[in-house]
Each structure stands twice: as structure tokens, then as C-alpha cells.
């Protein structure tokens, strides 16, 4: 009897060791990033838009392309998740603030770049399109230098000699113009409104923007 009990006890101890061990738990996917974490990730990508407003480097073409590429990648990565949508909406508001400040400070290249960035997050948005048009029109504004004046003794008209520089071009000498005359082809067209004082300078109107006038001093 004692021998039988001993065998049963040994069998009870051996049986658990013979059972198969449970499989290891499968690797669980990492938890979804929080809206704050996603926001910080994307905010780093758009930092070149904010830099010019705080005394940092200007938004050159390379830095602008870096922002646009980063935003496209971030949108593709996060737009399908709820947390991603929250973060992207916060980024949109940040870019909207940058657009308004760039317009206020007349940073036209920054305004154009920020508008293009906003367009990625909100395609066809009327606000970004309007800002983009403002920036493009301002960037098309010619630069002008007054070179001198000459009076026609017969007609008593005074002609102004101007040097003009269009975006992406060199300075060129413009044909002499009188008060009231327009020159340059659209969208760069200017009108000579008046000669200031005794040939102290000129007042010009940039026709692409209604009512936009500016003065250029004579040397």
C-alpha cells in the first residue's frame, strides 16, 4: 500500500512538468501617440516658417521645400487617426497665425510659403488662396530708382528718368515718363502720379493693387 501511494505521488509531481508551456505573449503594437506628441513632431517640421518672425533665418527656397515636404509626410502619416486629426488641426491654426503675422510685417515670401503650407492641410481653402494672391502680387512689385529729370521747354512737361528692376531681373533704364503715364507690362504696371516738390522725388501707383501708392526719392 505504501509503495502504491509513493508511485502516485511521484506521478503527480511529474505530470505538470510534462504539460506544454503556454506560448509567449505576442508582441503588442506600441500605443498610438497622443495628440501632443504628434503635434510636437509636426511643429518641428514647420519651425522654418516661424523663424523669420522671431529674428531667425529667412525662408529661402530650400527651407520652404523642407517645410512642404515635411507637412505632406506628416499629413499622410497621421490624417487617418483621431489623435492625428487633432494635432493637424492645431498645426493649421499655427500656420494661420503665421500667415496673418507675415502679412502684418510685410514678409511676402514668408506669407507665400505659409500659404502653400496651409494649402497642403486644407486644399482649396479660400483664406490661404487669398493670402497667396496677396503675396504673389506684392512679390511682383517692381523696384524703382529715380535717375533724373528733364523739362521739355516747348510743352513745359517734365520727364522723369527711372531705373526699374523686376523680380528675377537686372536693373534696366525705363523710357522717360511724364505725370499720369503708365509704364511696364501687367502685372508690374506702374503709373507716375506726380513729381514731388521741386524734383525731390516721384509718387508712383502700383496698379495691381488698387490704391497702392509709394514714393521714391531722387538722388
What is the chain-wise order of helices and strands? HHHHHHHEEEEEEE
Unreliable stretches (pLDDT < 50, length at least 5) are 1-18
Beginning-to-end CA distance, first to last residue: 126 Å
Strand order of the largest sheet: 4-5-6-7
Total domains, how many? 2
- Rg, rounded, reads 34 Å
User: Largest sheet at a glance?
Assistant: 4 strands, antiparallel
Task: Give average pLDDT, whole number.
Answer: 90
Q: What's the total number of strands? A: 7
Strand-pairing-aware structural class:
alpha+beta
Brief characterization of the structure:
This protein is of the alpha+beta class and 219 residues long. The protein has seven helices and seven strands, in the order αααααααβββββββ.
List keywords for this structure.
alpha+beta, 2 domains, four-stranded antiparallel sheet, three-stranded antiparallel sheet, 7 helices, 7 strands, rod-shaped, disordered N terminus
Give an account of the 3D structure.
Strands 4-5-6-7 form a 4-stranded antiparallel beta sheet, with no helix packed on it. The protein has a 3-stranded antiparallel beta sheet with strand order 1-2-3, with no helix packed on it. The protein starts with a helix and ends with a strand. With 219 residues, it is α+β, with helices and mostly antiparallel strands. It has 7 helices and 7 strands, in the order αααααααβββββββ. The relative contact order is 0.08. It has 2 domains: 35-139, no CATH class; 143-217, no CATH class. The longest helix is centred in the middle third of the chain and has 24 residues, at 82-105. The chain is rod-shaped, with a radius of gyration of 34 Å. The protein is 47% helix and 20% strand.
